[in-house]
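Quick review question:
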């Protein structure tokens, strides 16, 4: 038995699947003030009458990190940057609590200017006086040589005993200094609260007799053991959209190209699957105004859903972006698209009389009948979703994977399938597909597809290896791991073999070794360094990935 739990904007859904079948589902209203409580309530309803010793795996898709960041409830962080020459941190929009340290490492990891330790001491003393307990330290090329980050971290830790200090090379080893700085700051800002969540969840599951391994769903559709996820909490942002994509992959025939629409109570998430492979955001996720290195699917969230508030502004009907509560037909405070669907017979949920009351209020302002008002509400929702999909196509076209797909297929992508999941999908997706001239697909179990996607998603992992043969050194970007190459004539083939060996070691550490055989080389490049008409060394870069996928137990 596999258990999946997904925290949505309106409801928290849970499923048990076994042998490719959905055995049981449960859902409860989402309590945004206590996500832990609603997850456990959904779990308790789900396992009632079930032998919990038969549960083999639990996967959680949670909005805890996303909500923490969106609501400004993260811990305050002091960001200490070592930018070196040619960079102005003021251009990075990383917030107000930023301090610049002196020192420089070049792109190959060579120190070109020593770290000014007296400046670090001065900044650390100021941070102590201001009461900062969370510190992020990031050097421009700290992933190639982290000596400056380590030394600055040592000084700051000595000046602020008990403070939590995070170093940039431990969070991300990829190039792009501002993204690495933002990712490091978000990591230390959320880690303590996230650790409390994981500890509480692990304890609660044991109290319920569930001894199975527990995983968290990441933004790239992969799973990570709950205890290991504490090292990288920001990897779990956008796990809701990731769950919907994995749910569509689980509930649709393999290899399809589809636009995904996940219509929930609060938001509608849009994504794309190209020939069975979800489209990834090549540069990482955008979290609020911050660009990060978090590996994530290319998704867009639209603030419109079944519970969006219907209002009249300047004589015109508008839906969303705010949600003030459930639909009036479900005991809420005002008119919503759900009330409109109930009046039009598109759904059977809720009190029909209350839905009529909601639409009468809208109709009285528009000077029309309740049914016509309901029709206008639905048309507004559908037009907004269609408009957003068309705008999204322009963004998708900028992604390298999209362009490669077009070259390989020798065709321009059209929305052939519109696959809908979420509670609002069955009535609305056919209308969206009709406007786009596409085929509508609403899979069985669409309302709980996200929980299914979480339950059957397999682990993912990425490893970026950088080799400098002249310095006889390699670096694993994800861990800041440095080692000796021992081969000045390193070839791309040998570099890929080393990357695979290192990936196996990292997969074993993360507890996902069973899926390491699925790893693929997705990027490989070599650059010869020439001095005096001869090759002095080589720079080689290799990226290996265990891609997102569905557990074979489900496909079977």
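Suggested answer, residue by residue:
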């Amino acid at each position: 038995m596999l258990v999946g739990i997904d925290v949505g904007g309106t409801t928290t859904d849970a499923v048990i699947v076994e042998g490719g079948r959905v055995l049981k589902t449960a859902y409860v209203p989402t309590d945004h003030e206590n996500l832990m409580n609603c997850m456990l309530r959904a779990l308790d309803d789900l396992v009632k009458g079930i032998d919990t010793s038969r549960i083999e795996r639990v996967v959680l898709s949670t909005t805890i990190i996303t909500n923490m960041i969106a609501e400004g409830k993260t811990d305050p962080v002091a960001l200490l940057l070592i930018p070196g020459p040619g960079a102005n941190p003021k251009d990075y929009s990383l917030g107000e609590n930023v301090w610049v340290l002196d020192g420089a490492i070049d792109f190959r990891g060579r120190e070109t200017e020593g770290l000014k330790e007296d400046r670090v001491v001065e900044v650390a003393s100021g941070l102590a006086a201001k009461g900062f307990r969370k510190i992020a330290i990031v050097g421009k090329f700290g992933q190639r040589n982290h000596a400056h980050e380590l030394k600055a971290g040592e000084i700051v830790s000595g000046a602020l005993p008990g403070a939590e200090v995070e170093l940039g090379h431990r969070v991300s080893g990829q190039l792009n200094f501002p993204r690495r700085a933002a990712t490091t700051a978000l990591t230390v800002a959320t880690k303590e609260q996230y650790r409390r969540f994981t500890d509480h969840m692990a304890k609660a599951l044991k109290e319920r007799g569930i001894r199975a391994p527990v995983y968290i769903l990441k933004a790239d559709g992969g799973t990570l053991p709950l205890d290991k996820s504490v090292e990288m909490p920001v990897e779990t942002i956008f796990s809701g959209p990731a769950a919907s994509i994995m749910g569509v992959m689980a509930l649709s025939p393999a290899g399809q190209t589809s636009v995904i629409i996940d219509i929930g109570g609060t938001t509608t998430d849009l994504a794309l699957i190209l020939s069975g492979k979800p489209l990834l955001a090549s540069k990482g996720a955008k979290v609020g105004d911050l660009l990060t290195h978090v590996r994530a699917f290319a998704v867009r969230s639209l603030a419109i859903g079944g519970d969006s508030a219907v209002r009249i502004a300047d004589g015109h009907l508008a839906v969303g972006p705010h949600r003030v509560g459930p639909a009036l037909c479900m005991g809420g405070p005002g008119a919503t698209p759900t009330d409109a669907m109930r009046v039009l017979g598109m759904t059977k949920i809720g009190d029909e009389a209350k839905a009529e009351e909601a639409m009468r209020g809208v109709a009285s302002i528009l000077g029309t009948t309740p049914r016509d008002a309901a029709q206008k509400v639905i048309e507004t929702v559908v037009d907004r979703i269609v408009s957003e999909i068309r705008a999204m196509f322009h963004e998708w076209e900028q992604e390298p994977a999209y362009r490669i797909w077009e070259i390989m297929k020798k065709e321009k992508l059209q929305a052939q399938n519109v696959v809908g999941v979420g509670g609002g999908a069955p009535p609305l997706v056919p209308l969206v597909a009709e406007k786009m001239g596409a085929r509508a697909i609403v899979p069985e179990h669409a309302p709980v597809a996200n929980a299914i996607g979480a339950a059957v998603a397999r682990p993912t992992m990425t490893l970026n290896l950088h080799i400098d043969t002249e310095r006889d050194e390699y670096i694993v970007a994800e861990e800041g791991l440095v080692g000796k190459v021992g081969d000045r004539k390193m070839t791309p083939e040998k570099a890929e073999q080393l990357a695979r060996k290192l990936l196996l070691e990292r997969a074993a550490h993360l507890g996902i070794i069973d899926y390491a055989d699925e790893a693929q080389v997705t990027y490989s490049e070599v650059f010869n360094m020439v001095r005096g008409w001869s090759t002095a060394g080589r720079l080689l870069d290799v990226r290996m990935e265990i891609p997102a996928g569905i557990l074979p137990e489900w496909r079977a």
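Why it works: The chain has a mean pLDDT of 84. The chain has three domains: 78-190, 253-444, 461-555.
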